[in-house]
Protein 1
Amino acid sequence: MEYILLFAGFILLLYSGKYLVKGSVLLAQRFNISKLVIGVTVVSFGTSAPELFVSLIAAVNNHPEVTIGNVIGSNIANIALVLAFTAIIIPIPVKGNSIKIDAPMMLLASILLYVFILNGILGFFEGLLFVLMLVGYNFFSIRYSIKTNIANQDVVTEKQKHWIIIAVMILVSTIGLSYGSKLLVDNATIIAKEFGISERIIAITLVAFGTSLPELATSVIAAFKKEMDISIGNIIGSNIFNIFGVLGITSMIKAVPIASKFISIDIFWMLGIAILLFLFILPFKGGRLTRVKGAVLFVAYCAYIYSLFIF
């Protein structure tokens, strides 16, 4: 029964995240917000909403290893699994000026997380700083894009839906994320105990993969539609949000104790893979994430997962 409920949690997270993005985009359109602003704010939040809900539920229910493992595992999976898989299917050109801001910000967020967890706990003030940095990052990204003429007033022209339909879509999706997260956390914990596997490993592998499903779907679909900026931008933006938003909000609500292996092992894998991606997309304009680079990232992911059961 636990496996059925776990799978149900995955499905609920995937579809709730999808319709949260759809509803939020429709809401933004009613206010004539440009595609750029929608992408920077709504899409990155929507695809990271499962991580946020899972981490919050886990923290409140005293499963801190799931909270931190979900974020670190998701950030690793987003790059070395989702983006790697996308690049293997279709090589991704790097041509967006915004990458000049986003990629260094992702590295900064990762380094700050490492510094903040060295004392074994992520508390309120660290979380507050993360949230403030997220607000500042979004504000600066939008201003920079407008200033450099990347932003435009090209608003998606789908048929407008009534605001009540949009509100219901967002509300139902949010409730779905909440219940899906609880199903995922509760049943993943039960399965871990049955097999004698630590919550850390379950969180980094199974839970992280489940919460990365929206990023996987978004990036692969964007790649097939030749919207390559969305593929790589979605991943980098989601990784930034996972640290600044997910851990920031969660640790402001409840302090998150950090197990020693996250500090001595997992955080270094996350940093290493983030640096590898940073090097692979240089120069930020005119570079290319090739199939070979995607394969290297995927091999790194496999090596990391293998190491979890060795060390």
Protein 2
Amino acid sequence: MKTPRLSRRQRDLLNCAPTGEERVRDRTMRAVISRAGKSHEFVNQQNFDRAVAALVRVIPMPPETAEWFSTDLISPSKWTWKKTVRNPAVLAIGIALVVIAGVLVFQFVARLNDFPGSATARKLLAIAGSTRSVLLDPVNADAGTLSDLFFMKHGLEHYDVPPEFADFRTIGCRVFDDDESRRIAQIWVAEKRMQFFLFPAERDVKTGAVLKFPGWRYVHQENWIGAVTQHNGVCFMAALRGREKDLTPYIPKTKQ
């Protein structure tokens, strides 16, 4: 009996047919085997497959190969926590999680010290680090006297230097617009090459009211430190290259 005409897919299934029909669970496979019936070619193939399977079962497995399939190899007791921690993949994931957690904590702590105008203050610290004295108009006077110059020449009201810094001798000053078209006054003084900035205070978007904050607040940007206070809707910032301890002596103790 010859094998009946089968499609290519059916022939592929017949080539993969198991040696025992009791193992056939696929409906399509059972249909192909049933159609092939007791054909001479199919019976010979089945007999050959059974003989090969029986031969394979009696071949002894080398001890070193048997260890690969031992249940002890995948036993949970083999994977202690020390071995797991030393795994390079686990170490890489752990380090990445620690770095991410550190960045999130740093950002959270930084936001705790935010105040209305802190974002502008940080931008001005960046400007302070890139400004050269030749960009400013030379002025040799006390910093406290420049409020009249800002008002008469630029129409800026309440751009007053606080009394704590009013007696510092200036090297130069200028007025410029930032990226949000706000008028910024910049003063360079001889004391520790310190720079002062006067800029409009933040306002409520809906009401337009000034968002006030008490005392002095510190901001950091790269290697610069700034101390900011607010008066009459204008923020004043004293900035210098260094750390907070370098600026603290100039800030009134009762207003920190």
